[in-house]
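Hi F.,

I've been meaning to write this up properly since the lab meeting, where we talked about keeping a consistent format for the predictions we share between groups. The idea is simple: the sequence comes first, exactly as it goes in, then the structure tokens exactly as they come out, then a line or two of notes. No screenshots and no reformatting. I'm using this chain as the first example so we have something concrete to point to.
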Amino acid sequence: MLNKIIASVIPIFPKSFIYIFAKKYIAGPTLDDAIKVTKDLMSKGGMSTIDVLGEFVSSKEMAENEVKACNKVLDSIISNHLDSNLSVKPTSLGLGIDPEYGYTNIKNLVTKAKSLGLFIRLDMENSPYTTPTLELYKRLRNDGLDNVGIVLQAYMRRTMDDVKSLLEYKPNIRLCKGIYVEPKEIAYKDKEEVRDNYRRLLKFMLDNNLYVGIATHDEPLIQYAEELIKSKGLKNNEYEFQMLLGVRNERRDQLLKEGHRLRVYVPFGTDWFGYSTRRLKENPKMVNDVIKSIFGMNK
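Output, unedited:
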């Protein structure tokens, strides 16, 4: 309970204070930081997906800056020979300003990525953007762009229907629990309900031969996924595990040693606050660190 109370007031603390704890979750302020982290992951047999931090932009000028930053990521993946792809938040590229404008920006990026032999993941944001993001994905696929994937969230009650609506595209899906605060009418709130739905979704996806990024740090779900992979006799190029930077590094390394493909989400940039506070809220250990610092318990 105390963790939840502290987590709820974290956003009112000075950013300089929060950054002490948040920096664990981000590569750093620059693209060079993300490149360095990716190379380190590659030395251990891992992969990355690089994300330019930024969301819910309010002007086309801001969106255009995000587009430029994403283009630099694509160029850097090639020039540095990185085993990586690009993750984009549709709202950061203008989806919330004007859907057509956002689509054009994203289509141009995906088209460039295809010419370079690279893949782009459309991140999933909060519920007002679930349907627009799914429609954007389908439109890209209908326009002949198959180097693009989507994220689906297990805590959303609608997700099984969304998966079924995508089957004809044989989508590459990143399956995560979900982190945005949503009303109980549209999202499962109980931890075990979310886990159960994650299991149902993962099994359905693998039963339908979809490539899934199994994105979780939850040990029961990781173990369930390992059992499912083994029972189906899947090869390691038919799925991958995914984790966030700075979370369960020892488990990450163990999965790699066991021969699984594993990709780490590597965000970078100066617009780190919203992303990092969500990470702090979901990770009790980090909240404990904040509590200890506040009350001088680390002395």
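Notes:
The longest strand covers residues 262-268.
Residues 78 and 116 are 8 Å apart (CA to CA).

If this format works for you, I'll send the rest the same way.

G.
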